[in-house]
Design brief:
The structure is a single chain. This protein has twelve helices and eight strands. It is an alpha+beta fold and 397 residues long. The protein has three domains: 83 residues, no CATH class; 114 residues, Butyryl-CoA Dehydrogenase, subunit A, domain 2 (Beta Barrel); 147 residues, Butyryl-CoA Dehydrogenase, subunit A, domain 3. The strands form two sheets. It has a four-stranded mixed β-sheet. Strand 6 and strand 7 form a beta hairpin. Helix 5 crosses helix 7 and helix 10 runs antiparallel to helix 12. The longest helix is centred in the last third of the chain and has 29 residues. The relative contact order is 0.10.
Length: 397
């Protein structure tokens, strides 16, 4: 089997590469290359540059601002932007809520919310996980009770691991609207909640590397207008599954793997380990695994092109991609040796890089490695993904 991109695909690759090289601000590229902390303004700056080119929402229909790309173009775009040192698109409104609203939202919801998502005026938090209901979303306990007049839901509960909630002005959430449903997957609805609503409190969760990207959100008698219900009442489980399908296919991070593995090869040379046989065998194994990961991604693209529903490829990509990224970050720390040990939260920002007590190009390695531990958890833990793969394999016999 010969896997090859067409001439048009390769021309598109060069177009994206040139755009990133020309338009990505140097300070943002520097932060990404060194693994330094990115601020909200950095993402907004880059996202608005992409939107001006019409490239921010590749998964959206053309009539709502999408570029009209096929799956191969979207794959190439993701890979080339990451290889070029651009921030990955993390905004949940762009990657997750947008496709759900296109498929299930009302025309009023589309008119009201989609333009602000494209302009990065509104950022959305993902209110799915709860204590005891992370990968098992059927165990959601946050309740939404419709008031007697039918105008508002009253929401009570606790959401956790809510990425970038402190930057967000809105949340899309799964809530239980029928506690007496015969199956746990039934009786769940999909609501849009204003983060400024009385009774909604956001608290940061300090992570291993010192960041506060994750949060927990408490909802105490939060009133939500009934027009903020997406789709049908009690059908939120289906919408949530649809959304997670969009999330998991991008978690593998092939572009990030290539970027960090190239960095590992370069760092090995700088540290005088270019001829170390054990290290070189370790990096060569990563090269092989990355090639296999890319072939899996191409099989997924092939399924899309042939209008076939992909099988377990998305779960396979998620498992192998995230574990490979973790292994590469661990290798980077090992290669850097003692230079990766000193830890300074302040020095992880570009403005304070000169305060680092170690090589400035290595100051964030330990933090990046610690931060990578979450890769195998979010988007459905890898243990859950392995169960999905096993079930699909066994069902085939």
């Amino acid at each position: 089997m010969k896997l090859q991109f067409s001439a048009a695909d390769e021309a598109f690759r060069l177009e994206v590469r040139a755009f990133v090289k020309d338009k990505l601000p140097a300070d943002i590229r520097r932060k990404v290359e060194l693994g330094l902390r990115l601020e909200h303004a950095d993402y907004v700056t880059w996202f608005r540059i992409l939107e001006a080119r019409g490239w921010l929402t590749p998964g959206w229909p053309v009539e709502h601002g999408g570029p009209g790309w096929n799956h191969v173009q979207r794959y190439i775009f993701d890979e080339e932007t990451l290889l070029g040192g651009a921030p990955r698109i993390i905004a949940s409104g762009i990657q997750m809520l947008g496709p759900v609203l296109h498929a299930f939202g009302t025309e009023e919801q589309k008119r009201h919310y989609l333009p602000d998502i494209r302009q990065s005026n509104t950022w959305w938090a993902q209110g799915f996980s709860e204590p005891g209901a992370g990968s098992d979303l059927a165990a959601v306990r946050t309740t939404a009770v419709l008031e007697p007049d039918g105008q508002h839901f009253v929401v009570n509960g606790h959401k956790v691991w809510t990425s970038y909630a402190h930057w967000c002005s809105m949340m899309f959430a799964l809530v239980r609207t029928d506690p007496h449903a015969s199956k746990p997957q039934e009786g769940i609805s999909f609501l849009l909640i204003d983060m400024a609503s009385p009774g909604l409190t956001v608290r940061p969760i300090r992570m291993l590397e010192g960041g506060t990207d994750l949060n927990e959100c408490y909802l105490d008698n939060v009133r939500v207008p009934v027009e903020n219900l997406v789709g049908e009442l009690h059908k939120g489980w289906s919408y949530g599954k649809y959304l997670l399908g969009h999330e998991r296919t991008g978690i593998a991070g092939i572009g990030s793997c290539k970027q960090q593995l190239a960095r590992a090869h370069q760092l090995a040379q700088q540290q005088g380990l270019g001829d170390d046989p054990v290290l070189q065998a370790r990096l060569a194994q990563f090269d092989v695994e990355l090639m296999a990961l890319e072939f899996t991604a191409l099989r997924l693209l092939s399924a899309h092109q042939q209008s076939r529903t992909p099988g377990v490829e998305a779960s396979m990509l998620k498992v192998r991609g995230t574990e490979l990224r973790q292994a590469i970050f661990e290798a980077l720390v090992d290669i850097a040796g003692p230079d990766a040990v000193p830890f300074s939260l302040e020095a992880q920002s570009l403005e304070h890089l000169d305060e680092a007590v170690t090589d400035p190009t290595l100051v964030a390695l330990a933090a990046n490695c610690l931060d990578a531990r979450k890769l195998t958890i979010y988007g459905g833990t890898n243990e859950v993904q392995r169960n999905l793969i096993a079930r699909a394999t066994l069902d085939a016999f």
